[in-house]
Design a protein that fits this description.
The chain is of the alpha+beta class. It has helices spanning about 5-15, 65-75, 80-95, 105-110, 120-140, and strands at about 30-35, 40-50, 50-60. The chain contains five helices and three strands, in the order H-E-E-E-H-H-H-H. The radius of gyration is 14 Å and the shape is globular. Bound molecules: zinc ion.
């Protein structure tokens, strides 16, 4: 099995069995859309003592947008706000690298499977949608960007 098909399996697995999907709740439910593809993510986070203690999202759209949101939720849950934003910044850099960066698998874990998306500018917004929703919700919860 080559790397591309391995990555494809990771993405499809998250798409078919999304993690932390549910009904967002609370005072700061955010709704982000990617009109160019029709992707939507609704998301809420709970921040307790500067730790991302809860994250719930729902969404519709392409496999990249939905899998990326599932992967993001695994990565940021239980992390401090600083750690979560560091991961977010590394993923954003990877997505904006136009295929030139490989990413640090020790930090990005399953998100590495999305690295190939950076070669396709039209799909980068799909991959970043859930991450931007998380950033927005965290900031609304008082986390400093
Ligand atoms: Zn999409």
């Amino acid at each position: 099995m080559d790397l591309d098909s391995l990555y494809q399996d990771v993405i499809l697995d998250h798409y078919k069995n999304p993690h932390h999907k549910g009904v967002p709740f609370g005072d700061f439910v955010v709704h982000h859309v990617n009109p160019s593809c029709g992707d939507e993510v609704t998301l809420s986070v709970t921040v307790k003592e500067n730790v991302i203690s809860e994250l719930v999202w729902s969404g519709v759209g392409c496999s990249i947008s939905q899998a990326s949101t599932s992967i993001m939720s695994d990565l940021v849950l239980g992390k401090t706000a600083d750690e979560a934003f560091s991961i977010l910044n590394q993923f954003t850099e990877l997505m904006q690298s136009k295929g030139s960066a490989v990413g640090d698998e020790a930090v990005l874990e399953d998100a590495i499977a999305l690295s190939g998306v950076s070669k396709f500018p039209a799909r980068v917004k799909c991959a970043l949608l859930g991450w931007m929703a998380f950033k927005d919700a965290a900031i609304q919860n008082g986390v400093q960007a």
